[in-house]
Write a structure and sequence with these properties.
Blueprint (H helix, E strand, L loop, with lengths): L1 E7 L3 H12 L5 E3 L26 H14 L3 E3 L3 E5 L5 E5 L4 E9 L3 E3 L15 E2 L2 H4 L7 E5 L3 H10 L5 E6 L8 H8 L4 E5 L1 E9 L2 E9 L5 E5 L2 E4 L3 E3 L30 E3 L11 H44 L1
Parallel strand pairs: 1-2, 1-6, 2-3, 6-17, 8-15, 9-10, 9-15, 10-11
Antiparallel strand pairs: 4-5, 5-6, 7-16, 12-13, 13-14
Helix pairs in contact: 1-2, 1-6, 4-5
Length: 330
């Protein structure tokens, strides 16, 4: 089946793009993937999305966006995209169930997946004391003890940010040396709210009926197990952009994030746009994702309009040529 626009992914970016395209009478098809709504569906409270003074749960916010997109005429389809053919237009989208779709334009909003440790207690406590976003959830840990796991620049940055709320932020890293740049390490070490538990490997997230209570670690120097008390645990070990299905057809940066023309959502292939966390290695917020989704929709709408005009001109030229040939025959 052919569509003017297909949006791959249904986080804040994809659904915002769907709302804008649907309002422009383009009737986009949205393929929602294996995690409909994206990472926000694992967030219990969202307090920093404008328009909700009392906050809103992540699943509720995404459900509202979904309903809004459907209201204006978007179609949302369950499924997982396994491959895309960009070699010619219309583009071909291959689905896991064997289905094939074609589109004049594509918007990629597949997000990025936070890297996990894979230890006991981690998955079941996401949103219940375990978080992958300090700027999203730090507010909920005022005067609490927090652990940040990681040794890179992101971990140092998040540890410092969390000291605005927490009574103590303890950095846990499996090695003695940190991967973070010297200036980021210096800033973190100068903060008297930051404590250090280096050369320790996380073993288990410990939780009770009210949520996370600590982190069990292996002391690599002594060989002993230790329990570090904490009310919250923040994973700061990086993200993986969800771009595997693209097969390297679009350029990425050194971390795998899709590259777009600065100030736009346009990728290196005309008619293919990217928005949200799949192309954002810095901000990774619901509101910035939504904003980039709006950009992608406006860019796609302009492309579709210009492409349609070119096709009409070509058809008119062919018709005139045909008419001229018929006149000559007579």
């Amino acid at each position: 089946m052919h569509h003017k626009a297909i949006i791959i992914g249904t986080g804040p970016a994809g659904l915002t793009a769907a709302i804008y395209l649907a309002r422009a009478n383009i009737s986009p098809l949205v393929i929602e993937g294996i995690q409909p709504g994206g990472q926000l569906t694992t967030t219990t409270e969202v307090d920093n999305f404008p328009g909700f003074p009392d906050g809103i749960t992540g699943p509720e916010l995404m459900d509202n966006m979904r309903k809004q997109a459907l209201r204006f005429g978007a179609t949302i389809q369950s499924g997982r995209v396994t491959e895309v053919d960009f070699s010619k237009r219309p583009f071909t989208v291959f689905l896991e169930d064997g289905g094939r779709l074609t589109a004049d334009s594509l918007i990629i909003s597949t997000g990025a997946t936070a890297k996990k440790l894979g230890i006991p207690g981690e998955a079941e406590n996401i949103g219940k004391g375990v978080s992958t976003c300090a700027t999203c959830d730090g507010f909920f840990f005022r005067n609490k003890k927090i652990i940040v796991i990681g040794g890179g620049d992101t971990a140092m940055e998040e540890a410092q940010f969390l000291t605005r709320f927490a009574s103590e932020v303890r950095v846990v890293h499996r090695r003695d040396d940190l991967k973070a740049s010297k200036i980021m390490q210096d800033h973190a070490r100068a903060n008297n709210k930051v404590a250090w538990s280096l050369n320790r490997t996380p073993l288990e997230v410990v939780a009770g009926p009210m949520g996370v209570t600590g982190l069990k670690v292996h002391n690599n120097a002594t060989g002993e197990e230790e329990l570090l008390e904490a009310d919250g645990i923040f994973l700061a070990i990086g993200h993986t952009p969800n771009t595997g299905f693209l097969g390297g057809q679009l350029p990425t940066d050194e971390l795998g994030y899709l590259q777009v023309i600065p100030g736009t959502s346009q990728t290196s292939i005309p008619g293919v746009f990217a928005c949200g966390d799949v192309q954002d290695r810095i901000y990774r917020q619901a509101i910035t994702s939504a904003g980039s989704g709006c950009m992608a929709a406006l860019d796609a709408e302009r492309f579709i309009s210009e492409h349609a005009s070119q096709e009409q001109e070509q058809e008119q030229e062919q018709e005139l040529e045909l008419q001229g040939g018929m006149s000559y025959v007579r």
